[in-house]
Amino acid sequence: MTIRHSAHALLPLKIIATGTALPPQCITSAELDIRLHKPAGYVEKRSGIVHRFHATDDASHAELAAAALHDALGRHGLAPDSIDLLIFASVGSVQALPCSAVFVMKAARLRPGLAGFDINSSCVSFISAMQVAAGLLNAGTYRRIAIVSADLASRCLDWQHEESALIFGDGAACVIVECGDGTSGIAASLSETYPASSDLCEVRAGGTRCNPRTGMQDRDFLFHMQGKKLFRQASALIEGYLGRLLASAGLSLQEIATVAPHQASHLAMEHMRQRMNIAPDALVDIYRHRGNQVAASIPTALHEAVISGRFNPGQPVMLIGTAAGLTLAGMVLMP
Predict the structure, then answer these.
(1) In Å, how far from its chain's centre is CA 165?
(2) Looking at the predicted structure, is the pLDDT value of residue 6 above 60?
(3) What is the pLDDT, as a whole number, of residue 275?
(4) Distance between CA atoms of 90 and 172, rounded to whole angstroms?
(5) What residue numbers bound the domain in which 127 lies?
(6) How many domains does the structure of the chain reveal?
(7) Do both 57 and 168 map to the same domain?
(8) 234 phi and psi angles, rounded to 5 deg
(9) 143 and 176 in contact (C-beta within 8 Å)?
């Protein structure tokens, strides 16, 4: 189905390139069965993943992000010097200061003087960055913006906590955007945060709360998640949220051609299929071979939609996800 959405209702934005990058180390669930002394098939059954990718301990976060940027540039024949802003939209940072965009620009060997900054709204950072990029492009501040999401979730895994440790993978994705001619853009964007659930998904150290002066433990640097409780709360909110997002776009779920969601868990993907009634051919599901790639998850799913022929003019695409906070965020795009 092709939807003719009125141009005045769109915030102009055109995706001109996408790309991804993965660490070379593929970790199968069968290998984790052996490593964790579990019976054969245990990890795949519990996590829903066939394999995911983990960076080695000495791998560079910035270089993985730069590889995704160069993949996007190379696939579409774009010159690195044509980028005038780089937004690093991720959960993990290279270090506390300066911002991670600086390290990505350095690793990618982009021209000096390029603008760059970070956005962190947890797993939905890419959606936030798309909204910011659209505003800056339409204000005429920049002409071509690269949004890069890259996370090394493996650096924060607590292997004693199976519920979270088995589902995460590392990866990076890049989307390059321009203002376009107004025929493509953002039909709707909505973010809602419920801070009472802030302790259900967290890494406590790395800021002013847990540091050498306030006191900290090694485990404060590891990922902590109360997965079942988080899933219940997100599930209770997501259907009402989805209705508000679609109403803002003036569309029904049946009119959405492609849904590129955050690949949070096998339970989350199944919830989308069954309770949210998203058709299997509309849902971009890469979870079994990527795991939860944190902020890189949504742009990687969007890239998959592009290369698999599911990102076409006149056919609405929805990005949607939940994140630590608890935050729900989504965006309806007209390609």
Answers:
(1) 18
(2) no
(3) 84
(4) 9
(5) 11-182
(6) 2
(7) yes
(8) -65, -40
(9) no
